[in-house]
Amino acid sequence: MTWNIQNLFPKPLASSKINPEVCDILTEMLQDYDFSEDEGGLSAVTVNKHVLQNKTAVHDYLYRKVRQVICELGYHCDVQITTSWFTATLSGGSADEHAHCNSWFSAVVYFDEYDKDTSPIQFVNPPQGVYVSPSQDNDYNATDEVIVPEKGTILLFPSNVRHRVLKNYSQYERYSLAFNVLPKGYVDVGDSSYMYQ
Predict the structure, then answer these.
(1) Cα–Cα distance between 194 and 188 in angstroms, integer?
(2) What total number of domains does the chain contain?
(3) I need a labelling partner for 192 at 20 to 30 A (CA). Which of 19, 21, 91, 107 fits?
């Protein structure tokens, strides 16, 4: 007897490259913001959660990149970048597992220089009720996906996907830009509709 196996509601992780000039602008922008450190002082985010708001050219560039992939995913609606912030993971630091609430898709942009010891981002597949260690890893039984930062890379993923920054073994700080995305305009499905301003 032969089994037919198909993907059931897979989650997308989209990646692309950004213009090197955008990386340079983001590096310059980083200097303009104050950071709020976590309790251990080894990771931080900018106090300002709208860092793209006053950089229209960068905002519009990232908006176009995101809108393109949203359309490729089959959603033909306008989008908006809602919140945006820089993250810093110091040497020896990490960021706890989390998801982004009140958002549809989220993105991270790697604009800095990174080395082989720079902490990767880990996307986590929540465990089922019963866990059996697989004899061979595949897309159906994977518990996580690890992506190593590379300058000029942008990642986009559904905001409800849990993720964390693993320990930074590099002697250098790990910087990135994160932002959230919502639909924009009138969204109508069945008996539910909403106007996203």
Answers:
(1) 7
(2) 1
(3) 107
21 in a structural domain: yes
Cβ partners under 8 Å of residue 181, min gap 6: 66, 70, 79, 80, 81, 82, 103, 104, 105, 106, 107, 156, 159
Residues 6+ apart with CB under 8 A from 72: 14
Identify whether 63 is part of a domain.
yes
Cα–Cα nearest to 120, from 145, 156, 100, 139: 145
* Residue 178 domain flag: yes
CATH number at residue 27: 2.60.120.620
Radius of gyration of the chain (CA): 18
What tokens were used for 136?
Answer: 């061979």
Domain that holds residue 98: 14-127+142-184
Q: pTM to 2 decimals?
A: 0.93
Domain assignment present for 66: yes
Q: Tokens 């989650």 appear where?
A: 11
